[in-house]
Design a protein that fits this description.
Strand order of the largest sheet of chain A: 1-2
Structural class of chain A: mainly alpha
Oligomer: heterodimer
Number of strands of chain A: 2
Helix content of chain B: 25-40%
Distance between the termini of chain B: 53 Å
Strand content of chain A: under 5%
CATH superfamily of chain A: MetI-like
Radius of gyration of chain B: 21 Å
Number of helices of chain A: 12
Helix content of chain A: over 70%
CATH topology of chain A: MetI-like fold
Largest sheet of chain B: 11 strands, mixed
Shape of chain B: globular
Number of domains of chain A: 1
CATH topology of the largest domain in chain B: D-Maltodextrin-Binding Protein, domain 2
Order of helices and strands of chain B: HHEHEHEHHEEEEHHEHEHEEHHEHHEH
Number of helices of chain B: 15
Chain lengths: ~280, ~350
């Protein structure tokens, strides 16, 4: 057997477990879900077949369409705000914090990951409530006369998400920033570029893979989450994952839940295709 | 039938057999609601029979039945289910017949025997274990308790933005129906249409629609002052921290929730599963279940009253049960089409 053939066999052998795992726990269930999305309900029974009724309903029923729009709006806002907050934080850790303290700074940055997601959401509910820390502070400072209605609004959902995803984006952007040679900035400045020009035309383009990777992960995790909108949003509006959960837990309408999940997968796939040019998941 | 063996096998013998024979049926798998996960409830049974009870929580009958449908026979031994959905579980073949003569239903509050729900074609498949009310919970230091006696006050404008709606369509739609003078048993596709406007008006007056913990948090922190669909199950666990949290049944009435327990068909250890059911509906089990850590509720077995202290009974309104029971109606029991219509209306309300 030639060396190349042996290497190929070895490569397939090493790949096989991952491929089998992916086939068994992603591809096959996904195909099953797609097939189920074309079934329909008769009473409480699932009737298998090819019926596009679920998809027609999703795009013609305003309640369902609005849930999709809500999800996209919230995800877009969360992703943009998280990038705006995470980039300076990552830059400060990478360029201003002494190297020996950077690990500690990163550790502090990811500390919120250590607590349970559900507990963190309920904690935010207490912080943002009428008698919570935010309102009490603003009232104490005389900045507001009446408590602000933050909890059980979209703003609360966005705040809860941003708190979580700033940490994620900080990591991916930081990983990109520390790989940049300082010579790029020096060369730009030697050529007469100001600090802003250096950032806009040199640093930012070079760190775009880290930003896009973090943004993509934020998008995927945010658009698929139903706990934060449920707890912090107070069901003030429905998102797509909440709608899916309603179909699963309440109605037992698995075909409609599958169709909604396929739409969710399609949105995530679209986000992947759009960002794939810059995506560097190895930076995570 | 295997179940008949248990009729002749005293529980003590079964307990001795379990503890003396390592490896023999040492685990019991129960699909339950969160109130069954309190160690104070489960431990006495585990110690008596020398077994471990594995508890899996689920929410919503559809989710529970889906779990059973995706399981192999023998995976589950015990099922706790909404009493009004027992027939649905029986029709799906998920519940085994229980020996009615071994159940202490003679000691139950008469309204809680619920034979119309637990007995199908003359066979008993489940037994009621706990009940309570979906009604109005409120903070009496923030709202006028007299207002809470009339559902109309909720949408009068006086409490706009101070209300949370419990996120469960059946009891809340039932309450809205009662507010419109429609009995829960009379809800049909036609009457449902008349509930749309009052439901949306209630939503407009509300700040949030929340599941149990979020509704409790909102009430406890002053985020809202009223929870529509609440009751003793919502406020009792908070009563020690905030005695101002109260509940009442308004003049229009309230919904009575009830949960039943049964043995799963195909259980690999039906005798032990039956013993668990019998323990849960015994006075000891009932007292522990009534005051379990997740949520409180009235025990179906009235003899549990002998084991509950005065404070617990006061919180549960033990003495007012005859009056409350007479004024409360059961959950609506919709067929599949009406159920879908009710959920669609609820989803529309959520996304209003």
């Amino acid at each position: 057997m030639s060396l190349a053939a042996r290497d190929r066999r070895l490569a397939w052998g090493l790949l096989a477990p991952a491929l089998l795992w992916t086939a068994a726990f992603f591809i096959l269930p996904f195909l099953g879900m797609v097939a189920l999305s074309f079934a329909h309900m008769e009473g409480r029974q699932i009737v298998h077949g090819f019926d596009a009724g679920n998809y027609v309903r999703i795009f013609t029923d305003w309640t369902m369409l609005k849930a999709l729009i809500n999800s996209l709006e919230i995800t877009a806002v969360v992703t943009v705000i998280s990038i705006v907050l995470a980039y300076p934080l990552a830059a400060i850790i990478a360029f201003r914090v002494p190297v020996r303290w950077q690990r500690l700074a990163l550790l502090l940055a990811v500390l919120p990951f250590w607590t349970s997601y559900v507990v963190r959401s309920y904690s935010w509910l207490l912080v943002l409530g009428q008698n919570g820390v935010v309102n009490q502070t603003l009232l104490g400072l005389g900045l507001i006369a009446e408590p602000l209605q933050i909890a059980s609004t979209r703003a609360a959902t966005v705040i809860g998400f941003v708190h979580f995803f700033v940490m994620l984006l900080t990591l991916t952007i930081y990983a990109n920033l520390i790989q940049l040679s300082p010579n790029y900035a020096r060369a730009a400045q030697d050529l007469g570029a100001g600090r802003w020009q250096t950032f806009a035309h040199v640093i930012l383009p070079l760190t775009l893979p880290g930003v896009v990777t973090g943004a993509f992960l934020t998008f995927v995790l945010c658009i698929g989450d139903y706990i934060t909108p449920q707890i912090l949003g107070g069901n003030a509006e429905l998102t797509l994952p909440q709608l899916i959960m309603l179909q699963l837990g309440r109605s037992g309408n698995f075909p409609l839940a599958s169709a909604l999940s396929v739409i969710l997968m399609a949105v995530v796939t679209l986000a992947y295709v759009t960002s794939s040019r810059w995506l560097r998941l190895d930076r995570v | 039938m295997e179940m008949t063996m248990a009729r002749n096998l005293p529980a003590t013998c079964l307990a001795l057999l379990m503890t003396a024979t390592p490896g023999l049926a040492q685990e019991l798998n129960a699909l339950v609601w969160c109130d069954h996960t309190d160690p104070a409830l489960i431990r006495p049974f585990e110690e008596k029979f020398g077994v471990k009870v594995n508890l899996k929580e689920y929410e919503g009958t559809a989710a529970g039945l889906a779990i059973l449908e995706q399981s192999r026979p023998g995976d589950w031994d015990v099922l706790v289910i909404d009493a009004v959905d027992v027939k649905r579980a029986v029709e799906a073949g998920h519940l085994a017949e229980l020996p009615a003569d071994q159940l202490p239903t003679a000691d139950f509050f008469p309204e809680l025997v619920m034979a119309e729900n637990n007995v199908v074609d003359g066979k008993t498949y489940a037994v009621t274990e706990k009940f309570g009310y979906n009604t109005i919970s409120y903070d009496k230091s923030k709202v006028d308790p007299a207002d809470m006696e009339d559902m109309a006050s909720l949408t009068s404008g006086k409490y706009d933005g101070r209300i949370a709606i419990y996120d469960y369509y059946l009891p809340v739609l039932g309450l809205v129906a009662l507010g419109q003078g429609v009995n829960t048993a009379d809800i049909t596709a036609d009457t449902l249409a008349t509930l749309r406007e009052p439901l949306m008006a209630l939503r407009k007056a509300s700040k949030q629609v929340s599941e149990v913990v979020a509704a409790q948090t909102a009430l406890a922190t002053g985020e809202v002052d009223i929870v529509v669909g609440g009751g003793e199950w919502l406020t009792a666990v908070l009563a020690s921290e905030n005695p101002n949290l109260d509940w009442t049944i308004p003049k229009q009435g309230a919904l009575r929730w009830a949960q039943s327990i049964g043995v799963v068909a195909g259980s690999s250890q039906p005798d032990l599963a039956l013993e668990f059911v019998k323990y849960i509906v015994s006075p000891e089990g009932q007292a522990a279940l009534a005051t379990s850590s997740c949520y409180w509720g009235m025990p179906a077995n009235a003899k549990a009253g002998d084991l509950l202290d005065d404070e617990a009974k006061a919180i549960l309104r033990w003495d007012r049960q005859p009056e409350y029971l007479s004024r409360a109606q059961l959950y609506p029991i919709p067929d599949a089409a009406l159920d879908t219509a009710m959920q669609d209306l609820w989803t529309e309300m959520l996304n209003q």
